[in-house]
Amino acid sequence: MGAGFRVPLRVPAAFLAPALLLLAVFRLTPIGIAAGGSLTGTRLTGETVFVGLANFEALAADPSFWRSVEVTLLFNLVVNPLQIVCALGLALLVLRPTRFVPLFRAAFLTPMTVSIALTAVLWAILLEPTSGPVNGLLRALGLPPQPFFRSEHQALPALVAVASWKGVGYWMIFLLAGLLTIPRELYEAAALDGAGPLQRFWRITLPLMRRPLAFVLVADTAANFLLFAPVYVITHGGPNGATSLLMFEAYQAAFAYLDHGRSLALSTVILLILGLIAAAELRLFRERR
Amino acid sequence: MHRLDRRSTLGLGLAAATALARPARSQAAGLRVVWMGWPEGQVKPLMDSFRAAHPSIALQVETIPFVQIFQTLEVRLQARTSDPDIFICDSPLTASYAVRGHLLDLTPHLRAERFAKAALDAASWQGKLYSAPFGSSMQVLFYNKALLRAAGIAPPEPDPARRWTWEQLVDAAARLTDPAKGQWGFSFEQQERPYQLLPLGQSLGGVALSPDGLRATGFIDGPAFVEAYTFMQRLYTERKVSPPGLFDPNLPVEQFGNGRIAFLLAGTFNATVLADKYKAIELGVAPHPYFAAGKPVTPTGAWHIGVNPRTRQKEAALAFIDHFMSDELQIQWFKLRPYPPVLRAVWEKEAKAFDTDMWRIARHELDHTAVPRPATPGFREYEDVLRVALRDITTGADVKATLGAAAQKIDRELQKYR
Q1: Do A258 and B78 touch (CB under 8 A)?
Q2: Is residue B320 over pLDDT 50?
């Protein structure tokens, strides 16, 4: 495909230029500034001084940093696969335009319209251990009330749940769009050949969803690595460091501990980890020819 | 229908870009004030009073809720611009802001002899006055007379010499707690804030920070604080007399006002809110409790006003300070929100208002038991680390280990001030 249809390079370049320019100004430049800033420290009176790798050395020697790395990786290891499985499940459920399906599609999308900060406030109220409605429901069902965000063991799972409530509907749209591009004939042909629903899913749907899944996985990972608001609003990294995501640590370093170098070093570490994971994910979903 | 050709698209784009790039002309240069998010009725009258006295100075007042005020100020001040011109300044943060060049030296401007000594101390850093005292604070034990009566509990007396011990208070609170009715015996107003919770350890002889203000290890993680915070933890985990997790200070006050909490250890400034908003409640007042094995200690210090040294409207900003430091305005403020006044004149001119149990207690405490928060340029970091540790302790974290880790973290952050 594509042979015989040639356009001069400047045409796509011109179309891409505005997006690339914005990307450079709003993404790449701040990344560059952060990476450079991670090698500096700020004097109390505001002047910046070059400190080499001192910020990174301080991080490496700090047990609370390693705890954060551990929490962040654990969180992402659970939340990303979970969100994608749920999003794909929902997308499959609402794929066929039968009655009420538009209603469900809209319902699954609603959390997307709620800002993440508001989501956090909302769930902080819903999951409030003493007077929250969720525990009220549990009590009404004769089940013991749960501490949720106030327990060292439940806080991170609760965070996963809140992030997923917000995220799953959003990622569902991309996967739904992907599913809709799969030609119906393939399924019909497979059905004629005697393939059951599970076989059709494994042999047709999944292989053809490789690209949308790769995109969603990488984008979702990035979004979850940068998750900050619920931690800030609900747990402040606690109880006992159980939700101290790296992004929150970076915020704390800059605005509570007034240590910009440390904060930028943390951001750089997040970027590096994220880069490595995204590369691995893309490799995993690379089309085999 | 018109078709958009390339030229007209370009033209439209340019027009839009020009319109966006032009600065909004309506932004009148006013004094930008960042203020605490007190109820509007406690903010607007003061600002209106300034506007009436200085009609030529425009004011842009931004009120920020208590749980966000410190972070907000940090973001704004660290940008090192002229915004805000004036900001509300928690008194123990005076040194922190001064060291980093966020406060104008007000020494030549304030007449020191007008202020109470404790307020001047809290406003000073290296011998200069960096913040203008606007209020002090004192905590008293509010209680719901009707609930105590119904439970047959003799209320604590207002006489500081006969104040209750913590042990007495918790015993009474246990009798007043009824999970079935959602009723709790006792709550702190600020369940996670060092302001309210440092006096627990100090009552047992603990010292919150090294005398030079730069080391926490061996102080905040010492035996007195471990014992005090173990006691505090048990209020939530074992005795279960306190509602856990009400970290926003408005919440315990609200629940007390609604009759769901019997004893509330809270600031005098709540008196007007409780009287105006929760009229049904029969309010009793007693002094701050203490540990039988220790001595009475109470918290103090409160809000000051700071001027950004980068302000381009120094004259107007100083006019604001002058107005807010006047006897009249501080009397008005005291009536709106009863913090212990910082101006000697207010205590004298309003002598009648202080002839109540609450104010007799508050005055006694200010003279005898009040201990300000530790003086350190790193108070911002100190408070934030400790706050998270106290939060964790209320949820059941190991007290000694948590305080030890917090002390190390504080020391790490205080290093930059050495």
Answers
A1: yes
A2: yes
B13-22, B151-160, B347-356: which has the highest mean pLDDT?
B151-160
Cα–Cα dist A249/B122, whole Å: 30
List strand residue ranges (DSSP E) for B52-188, in order. 59-64, 86-90, 124-125, 128-129, 132-133, 139-144, 184-188
Q: What are the tokens at B405?
A: 């880790």
Least confident window among A1-15, A116-130, B275-289: A1-15
Tell whether B243 lies on the interface with A, counting CB pairs under 8 A: yes
pLDDT of residue B411 exceeding 80: yes
List CB contacts of B25: < 8 A, sequence separation 6 or more.
none
CA–CA distance, B258 with B279 (Å, rounded to integer): 10
Q: Which residues of A touch B244 (CB under 8 A)?
A: 129-130, 150
Which residues pair with residue B86 across a beta bridge? B33, B307
Query: Would you say residue B361 has pLDDT above 50?
Result: yes
Half-sphere exposure of A149 toward its Cβ, with a 13 Å CA cutoff?
A: 32
- Does residue B357 contact residue B158 with C-beta atoms inside 8 Å? yes
Predicted confidence band of residue B21 (pLDDT cuts 50, 70, 90): very low
Q: Please, are residues B187 and B177 in contact by the beta-carbon 8 Å criterion? A: no
The SS3 call for residue B66 is helix
Distance CA B319, CA B321 (A): 5
For B244-253, write each residue's pLDDT tens digit.
889 889 999 9
CA distance A114 to A221: 20
> Residue B279: what are its φ and ψ, rounded to 5°?
-65, -25
- For tokens 């006792």, the residue is B186
SS (H, E, C) B127-162: CEECCEECCCCCEEEEEEHHHHHHCCCCCCCCCHHH
Q: How confident is the model at residue B44 (pLDDT cuts 50, 70, 90)?
A: very high
CB B117 within 8 A of CB B372: no
Are the CB atoms for B262 and B148 separated by under 8 Å?
yes
Asked if A249 reaches chain B (Cβ–Cβ under 8 Å), the answer is no
Rounded Cα distance between A156 and A146, Å, is 14
**CA-to-CA distance for B349 and B369, rounded, in angstroms?**
25
How many C-alpha atoms does B219 have within 13 Å on its Cβ side? Answer: 19
pLDDT digit string (tens) for A110-122? 898 899 999 999 9
Q: What share of chain B is helix, strand, coil (3-state, %, to 5)?
A: 50, 15, 35
pLDDT tens track for B294-305: 999 999 988 999
Q: Are strands B59-64 and B31-36 parallel, antiparallel or unpaired?
A: parallel
Q: Give the best residue of A43, A228, A258, A264 to mutate against chain B (max B CB count within 10 A).
A: A258
Handedness of CA B15, B16, B21, B23 (dihedral sign): positive
Residue A21 per-residue DSSP state = H
Report CA dihedral (B70, B75, B81, B85) to the nearest 10 degrees.
Answer: -20
- C-alpha A128/C-alpha A119 separation (Å) is 14
How many contacts does A have with B, using Cβ atoms within 8 A?
71
